[in-house]
Amino acid sequence: MALVGVLALQGSFNEHIAALKRLGVKGVEIRKPEQLLTVNSLIIPGGESTTMAKLAEYFNLFPALREFVQMGKPVWGTCAGLIFLADKAIGQKIGGQQLVGGLDCTVHRNFFGSQIQSFETELAVPELASKEGGPETFRGVFIRAPAILDVGPEVQVLADYPVPSDKVTSSDSSVEDKKENAEEENKVIVAVRQGNILATAFHPELTADTRWHSYFLKMGNVTGEEASSSGIVPAQV
Ligand code: GLN
Predict the structure, then answer these.
(1) CA distance 161 to 146
(2) What pLDDT, in 10s, does the model give residues 115-148?
(3) Nearest atom of ligand 1 to the alpha carbon of 48
(4) Cα–Cα distance, 140 to 215 (Å, whole number)
(5) Which DSSP helix (H) or strand (E) runs through 81?
(6) Contact (Cβ atoms closer than 8 angstroms) between residue 73 and residue 40
(7) Is 51 helix (H, G, I), strand (E, B) or coil?
(8) Ligand 1 pocket mutation pick from 9, 79, 94, 188 by most atoms within 8 angstroms of CB
């Protein structure tokens, strides 16, 4: 059975492992640097990025994670995982948090506000529909979600989201300029790909739709026992 690493320090790693299992792929829990040597691709789950970063520091994972990304191995960050992969993160309480980096973008850590401002929405994702089939849209689950405010030239935008004014909250004056720009365009970026790096601001692992997992597996040429039968299958979480 094909193996995919899932960073298992905190957050929704079990849900990612369950989604991989539905595609016939084994998710391997990664907690130590040497465990990264056993896998060729890695998912960094959602959770709470400050806590996850503290644990990653404690386990001395940052150098190995950076090397993994720089070697060109497929890495997918969801939500807090996206924050980990961003070259630059802004937003409240960011103070000194380490990042893995590699993804040429600026992410706002809590763009959509706090837990109670979490929401679900249908996102148009043409790339996913054309590569994986299924509906034209994907159900995005946004939990204390970040958003990408700008991207470099190598970054392919896979999905954006028109921002309703009531979803934009900030008491952090350092980000106002960025937010104004985002509001002017009335949208923020919520899914991107840059070569071997995939990042989503939302949580595909909390839905029954495995198309993002299937898309990621193809980035690493991973074929699971059932990976070819991608699409919507009943959730087991
Ligand atoms: N905004 C959160 C953070 O800073 C991420 C939320 C999530 O992963 N659901 O870590």
Answers:
(1) 12
(2) 888 999 999 999 999 999 999 999 999 999 999 9
(3) 10
(4) 16
(5) helix 80-85
(6) yes
(7) helix
(8) 79
CB atoms within 10 A of CB 26: 15
Q: 3-219, what's its fold?
A: Rossmann fold (3.40.50)
- ipTM (interface pTM): 0.96
Cα–Cα distance measured from residue 53 to residue 125, given in angstroms and rounded to the nearest whole number: 30
pTM of structure: 0.88
Q: Judge whether 203 counts as a catalytic residue.
A: yes
Check residue 59 and report its DSSP letter: T
Tokens read off for 1 = 């059975």
Q: Which residues of 49-59 are buried (b: 16+ CB within 10 A; e: fewer)?
A: bbebbebbeee
Report residue 120: phi and psi, to 5°: -125, 145
The atom of ligand 1 lying closest to the CA of 78 is: 8
